[in-house]
Amino acid sequence: MIEARNIWKEYGDQxxxxxxxxxxxxxEFITLVGASGCGKSTFLKLLLGTETPSRGQLLLDGTPxxxxxxxxxxxxxxxxxxxxxxxxxxxxxxxxxxxxPGLTGHLFGRVRRDACVRAxxxxxxxxxxxxxxxxxxxxxxxxxxxxxxxxxLINKPRILLLDEPFxxxxxxxxxxMHRLVTDLWREHKxxxxxxxxxxxxGFYLGTRLWVFDKLRHDPQAPQAYGASITYDLPIxxxxxxPALSHEEPLPQVxxxxxxx
Amino acid sequence: MKRLINLTPASPWHLLLALLPFALLLVLYxxxxxxxxxxxxxxxxxxSFSQFGEALGRMALEPxxxxxxxxxWADTASSLARLGIGMSVAAVTGLLLGLFTxxxxxxxxxxSPLLTVISLVPPLALLPILFIVFGLGELSKVVLIAxxxxxxxxxxxxxxxxxxPFEQLVKAQTLGASTPQILIRVLLxxxxxxxxxxxxxxxGAGWLFLIAAEAIAATDGLGYRIFxxxxxxxxxxxxxxxxxxxxxxxxFDSLLAWTNRRLFPWYAQGGQS
Lengths: 260, 273
Known about the structure:
Number of domains of chain B: 1
Strand content of chain A: 15-25%
Oligomer: heterodimer
Shape of chain A: globular
Shape of chain B: globular
Distance between the termini of chain B: 41 Å
Mean pLDDT of chain B: 92
Largest interface: A-B, 40 and 30 residues
CATH superfamily of the largest domain in chain A: P-loop containing nucleotide triphosphate hydrolases
Order of helices and strands of chain A: EEEHEEEHHHEHEHEEHH
CATH topology of the largest domain in chain A: Rossmann fold
Number of helices of chain B: 11
Largest sheet of chain B: none
Number of helices of chain A: 8
Mean pLDDT of chain A: 86
Number of strands of chain B: 0
Radius of gyration of chain B: 24 Å
Number of strands of chain A: 10
CATH superfamily of chain B: MetI-like
CATH class of the largest domain in chain A: Alpha Beta
Structural class of chain B: mainly alpha
Strand content of chain B: under 5%
Low-confidence stretches of chain A: 256-260
Strand order of the largest sheet of chain A: 6-7-8-3-9-10
Structural class of chain A: alpha/beta
Radius of gyration of chain A: 19 Å
Distance between the termini of chain A: 31 Å
């Protein structure tokens, strides 16, 4: 479904990404890991459309990805993903309204009632039924991210982009969120790209894991070479899941796979 | 002994400490006024409170012999009308200018530098021009307030618009929102409480422009009155008028602050996520 053809991304003489060549099929859950500043978030921005490749092409179904965000690609950021001035249910209703024509972004009459039903169902799925009339600042970090996910999925995007969505959450809440994301991914048949700092999380959630790193390095000019995908690992979840319960340390074999 | 920055007054003292300077000023005034009146019963500089009462009663409760109006209330009404219209025009214009320059780079590019330069023009220096162009009637006073306040509000709202997290705009776009939908549903509601804050901050300047314009050319109004009676050294009228203006300013500020808390609970509680 998505194909990157020899993508480079440069800012001035600083090369961030180089020679990215990948193909992604519908329904894959791809986790992007790597050190800070290695370009994994930049790659996500290319997918999102807020950045464009300096060279090469990023294709969605054979045509270049639109160079601005649109309803094909939903996103959840680490923070600021929900509208602070709307209650939980209004956040989701606004998402329904944005999917329709109309100048004000409000819904009226029968359309609004239908949207309310859909919004309630979606919020029930992410476990926020008890907090419909709360404002985001009254929610915990985990609940806020649940809301952001509900909002992103209500319009049924084909691709869901997650930019370190659980980076600021407690470990226990993270485990809940992992379950939620996995369930939603299966149910909505999404293609997911998730940037994470947490290698274990990357292995636990993904069906495929990309490691971003620099293949070439010039100590005199660290910006001269960009990162590319150094490892593209398919993950067999059946085999891996039991070994990766959240309490245990990362198995040695996985360290070896990513730090040769 | 704790550090000075860590010492806070205990709660019953808090209110007392707040009232203390007011009480001191009052006592100081009364002592001064008494001393002067004792030396010269006709002294006009520091009138006694009974003289204030008499003057205020004459202005507020008795119709004027010349026009038959209750001058105090007529002054208040015309001043508030000017201030209200001027501030409203400034708020609406400033909001729209700030929203569009903040949200749309194509509007920002030509308008933003202009706005910066205009905001640096001292409005009172424009007053003669306004009198020439709009005449000495109501319009020039209202225009002075609007012209003086609009650039401040516009720049404040522009800044506030640009401070709204970029993530929210991206999110709205990924939900399929069009530009008008983003302006109306995402940006505008988050700017309204900031607009009220900006109006609160600029009310002081609004009063300044109002009183200046009234002092120069008017036939009624609070500012007109205090500058008129200055000729007779009528401190018994000036001081109550100043106190009244202060009270009005305080009331509007509190009213706006209350409105903000009431209408935008998420803002008062610091929501920005």
